[in-house]
Each structure stands twice: as structure tokens, then as C-alpha cells.
Design brief:
Elements (H helix, E strand, L loop, with lengths): L5 E6 L2 E6 L10 H16 L5 E5 L4 E3 L4 H4 L4 H7 L3 H8 L5 E5 L2 E3 L1 H8 L2 E5 L3 E3 L16 H6 L1 H10 L2 E3 H6 L5 E3 L4 H13 L3 H13 L5 H14 L4 H11 L10
Parallel strand pairs: 2-3, 3-5, 4-6, 5-7, 6-8, 7-10
Antiparallel strand pairs: 1-2, 8-9
Helix pairs in contact: 1-4, 10-11
The chain binds hexanoyl-coenzyme A.
Hexanoyl-coenzyme A (HXC) binds next to helix 2 and strand 6.
Length: 258
């Protein structure tokens, strides 16, 4: 499938999706968001994909929603159109592991998109921010919600109220990103992490993702119960038999996602 705003490659059970609007620092316009939701949903359904990596360019993961496209919109336009809500919900509902590999600017809707992923690997050049307040608007795809869960109230208020950028070191210190790597190694490191995940059973990885996400939705009691039931459920899979047999036989497991 050919996209206008993305480059998609699938190899070795990894789908690599690159945002590709270099003229606008990968600003998220309607076309890009539709294509991205479509490409991620297709990868999610593809049994030749076990992990998805989302990245941008060296200069920008994404500098936010496209201000040119948004500037003339009225309240009723964005209310009835529900700008990017369907695409954001679809991306956030992805069942397979989704890694964001972030270099350069990761701002506004770009930061919100990165936070919809399961974890973020950042280049040492990465800059995160929710600068919407500078435009007289507020974050609209999770910048006040996912950021607060990721870094806590003090940092989230600071970022959303001042619009300042956080560098990669601060992002790692506060838990927004899982690791920081030299910019030149970003894609290789992200692909290496994806490669590790792609060696596992897709079924088990999807159960892990669903279980961790439960920690952020609902009570601890419900989350623990969900995890325990999932722990029970994976004993019905062929991959559990294979994984444990391989360990006992001191060999690598051959997972079949069953
Ligand atoms: C449209 C953008 C853009 C954006 C950059 N560009 N960000 N176009 N929407 N969000 C364009 C510029 O207009 C310019 O195009 C080209 O990309 C290069 O950008 P420069 O500004 O010349 O680069 P630089 O001086 O290096 O500054 C980089 C920057 C700055 C600091 C990232 O571009 C910037 O502040 N961008 C806006 C960031 C922002 O406010 N994001 C939040 C958007 S609101 P030309 O044609 O002039 O060369 C949002 C809400 C989400 O995201 C809610 C969704 C529901």
C-alpha cells in the first residue's frame, strides 16, 4: 500500500512506519493521521507483524498538529469533526507492541502520538513539549492526561502551562521515555528492541501489553485480578508449552503465536 505521508516497511516481523512530511517537520495533518491510523491498524492485523516501530526524521518526530490546517477552524468545525479523535482512539487501541523512536522535536500532537505508543526510545537530541498554550489552545489528544500519568502533576502542569520543552535527559529522569541513545544509533536501537519483542510469541506480548495498560485504567484490585486471569489463560496456549519446554531443553523457543 502506497502512502503520501508515510513510509512503511515490513521485515522480520517488524513494521517500521516513518512519518514523512519533511517540509512541515512531520506536522500532523488530516491526511497523515488517516494514513497513520490505517497503516497501524493494518500492521496490527498482519500476522507477519509482531511489533511496530513508529519514527520521524532526525530533526522531528512530529512538531504537532498542522497549525496551517487548524488555524481557520471554528469551535463547531472541530466539535463536529472531532479532530483526530477517531484516529487517536484507533492508534491507542493497537493490540501489538508499538514503540516510538523519537529524534528532534516531539511537540503537541507529536508528543501525544508518542505517548500513545507503549514506550518511547529517545535520541539525545529529542525535545518534548506541549506548547499548545502558546497558540491559545489546549492539548487535545492526551497531553494533559497521558503526560500527567507518565511524569506526574508537577511536571505535566509545568509543561502544559509554560509550554517549555523537556530535553531527553529530563524525559528519561521523569519516566516519559524508557531509554536515551545517541541520535545516530536511534533507529538501530529501536529496531533491536523491536527485534527482541518479535522473537516472542505475539499472543503473549499482546497479553502483556493489555495487562500493563490495566495498571493505568481502573483500580489496583481490578488490575491485579485481570493480570492473574491472564496468567491463568496463557497456560492454554501452545506457546507456553513451547517456551517452557525450550527452557528445560536449553534451546531457543520457536513461537507460533498460538
Ligand atoms: C504546521 C509546521 C509546524 C506545525 C513546523 N512547521 N511546525 N507547520 N504545523 N505544527 C513548519 C514551519 O511552518 C516551517 O514551514 C517548517 O515546518 C520548519 O519549521 P521552522 O519553524 O522554520 O523550524 P525551526 O525554526 O527549526 O523551529 C522548529 C519548531 C517550530 C520549534 C518546532 O517550528 C515550532 O514551534 N513549531 C510549532 C510547534 C507547536 O506549536 N506545536 C503544537 C501544535 S498544536 P515553512 O513553510 O515556513 O518553511 C497541537 C494540538 C494537537 O499539536 C491537538 C490535536 C487534537
Amino acid at each position: 500500500m502506497a502512502y503520501e505521508t508515510l513510509i512503511v516497511e515490513i521485515e522480520d516481523y517488524i513494521a517500521l512506519i516513518r512519518l514523512n512530511r519533511p517540509e512541515a517537520l512531520n506536522a500532523l495533518n488530516a491526511r497523515l493521521m488517516q494514513e497513520l491510523a490505517q497503516a497501524i491498524a493494518a500492521a496490527d492485523r498482519n500476522d507477519k507483524v509482531r511489533c511496530i516501530v513508529l519514527t520521524g526524521s532526525e530533526k522531528a518526530f512530529a512538531a504537532g498538529a498542522d497549525v496551517k490546517e487548524m488555524s481557520e477552524k471554528s469551535f463547531t468545525d472541530v466539535f463536529f469533526d472531532d479532530l483526530f479523535a477517531a484516529e487517536a482512539d484507533s492508534i491507542a487501541r493497537t493490540r501489538k507492541p508499538l514503540i516510538a523512536a523519537v529524534s528532534g522535536y516531539c511537540l503537541g500532537g507529536g508528543c501525544e502520538l508518542a505517548m500513545m505508543c507503549d514506550f518511547i526510545i529517545a535520541a539525545d537530541t529529542a525535545k518534548f513539549g506541549q506548547p499548545e498554550i502558546n497558540l491559545g489552545i489546549v492539548a487535545g489528544m492526551g497531553g494533559t492526561q497521558r503526560l500527567t500519568r507518565a511524569v506526574g502533576k508537577a511536571k505535566a502542569m509545568d509543561m502544559n502551562l509554560t509550554g517549555r520543552f523537556m530535553d531527553a535527559a529530563e524525559a528519561e529522569r521523569t519516566g516519559l521515555v524508557s531509554r536515551v541513545v545517541p541520535a545516530k544509533d536511534l533507529l538501530a536501537e529501536a529496531m533491536k528492541a523491536a527485534g527482541k519483542i518479535a522473537q516472542k510469541s505475539a499472543l503473549t506480548a499482546m497479553v502483556v501489553k493489555e495487562s500493563v495498560n490495566r495498571a493505568l485504567e481502573g483500580s489496583l484490585r481490578e488490575g491485579i485480578l485481570f493480570e492473574r486471569r491472564m496468567f491463568h489463560a496463557v497456560f492454554s496456549t501452545e506457546d507456553q508449552k513451547e517456551g517452557m519446554a525450550a527452557f528445560l531443553e536449553k534451546r531457543e523457543p520457536q513461537f507460533r503465536d498460538r
